[in-house]
Specification:
- The chain is an alpha/beta fold.
- The protein has a domain at about 10-30 and about 50-190 and about 260-270: Metallo-beta-lactamase, Chain A (4-Layer Sandwich), CATH 3.60.15.
- It has eight helices and twelve strands.
- The strands form two sheets. A seven-stranded mixed β-sheet has the order 4-1-2-3-5-6-7. A five-stranded mixed β-sheet has the order 8-9-10-11-12, covered by helices on one side.
- The longest helix is centred in the last third of the chain and has 18 residues, at about 235-255.
- The two termini are about 20 Å apart.
- The structure holds zinc ion.
- Keywords: Hydrolase, Metal-binding, Zinc.
């Protein structure tokens, strides 16, 4: 069925790769509000669930705009950058050098040096730490105005200093902000403001010729249960509820495939680089 939301199509020849850029393991309470909580009758739950999370980027080979990277993973030396005790709470696991961002991009036959633009759904360390690869370049770095302001404020005041980091939130990157709730940022690529996890988080939608509609949710949803059960892990609950409704309706209208921020099972149900979608 036709929908206004499928009219904006990526041009003929667009290729899409999903990139596998890291793994971490954490308590389920960090991805699913209320997980592992005790109760009056069972104050100390016997089972304390943990989650293996993946870090994900996407690379788009665009016929007129060149290579576009969506999110970057955490970048180099995640355990050292996080430092104790956070490197134990969000433990890097199953590290292999082929998950470093330049190596993950190389699997597509491209070089990170050929990336023409970077888009961030949000600026937390595990999604934007790889911006360290773009210092000393003029590559434009796109994020929503509200996200960039919140990120710099958080680092400068220490209000949210662990999840945002000063080593990639630098004044000398070529920041490009966008400002509206909806934007066709490049031909065929649309951004929607979806606050909740962070004030400026945006989802990205791509309507591909063969594989159909893709929605990259960033951390509006860490794992599929956040989406399927409308169960948040949100910092602003009301905003998250509003964004959740928007994504559900959009996904239904477009019959979209969703790529959640960190869901391992969903990620591995899709092809990932070097295989690609058209
Ligand atoms: Zn994340």
């Amino acid at each position: 069925m036709a929908s206004l939301d499928t009219l904006i199509q990526a041009p003929e020849g667009t290729k899409l790769w999903l990139l596998y850029v890291g793994d971490m393991e954490t308590d389920e309470a960090f991805v699913y509000t209320g997980a592992n909580a005790g109760s009056y009758s069972q104050p100390h739950p016997s089972e304390h669930k943990r989650r293996h999370l993946v870090q994900i980027s996407a690379l788009i080979e665009h016929p007129t705009e060149g290579l576009i990277l969506f999110e970057t993973g955490s970048g180099r030396n995640w355990p050292e950058v996080l430092g104790p005790p956070f490197n134990d709470l969000f433990k890097q696991v199953e590290y292999t050098s082929d998950k470093e961002l330049p190596a993950a991009i190389a699997k597509t036959g491209h070089s990170i040096k050929d990336v023409k633009a970077v888009i961030l759904g949000h600026l937390h360390l595990d999604h934007a730490g790889g911006l360290e690869h773009f210092t000393d370049t003029d590559v434009p770095i796109y994020a929503h105005e509200k996200e960039l302001k919140h990120a710099f404020y958080s680092v400068a005041t220490g209000s949210d200093a662990v999840v945002y980091g000063p080593h990639y939130l630098r004044f000398d990157l070529n920041w490009k902000t966008f400002h509206s709730d909806f934007l066709e940022i490049f031909p065929g690529l649309t951004m929607r403001h979806a606050p909740g996890h962070t004030p400026g988080l945006c989802i990205m939608q791509v309507n591909m010729r063969e594989s159909g509609t893709w929605i990259f949710t960033s951390d509006q949803y860490h794992v599929k249960e956040n989406y399927e059960q409308s169960h948040p892990q949100a910092r602003d609950h009301d905003d998250w509820i509003h964004s959740n409704q928007m994504v559900h309706m959009l996904a239904k209208r477009t019959n979209a495939k969703l790529v959640f921020g960190h869901d391992k099972e969903t990620f591995f149900s899709y092809k990932h680089a070097p295989e690609y979608y058209t």
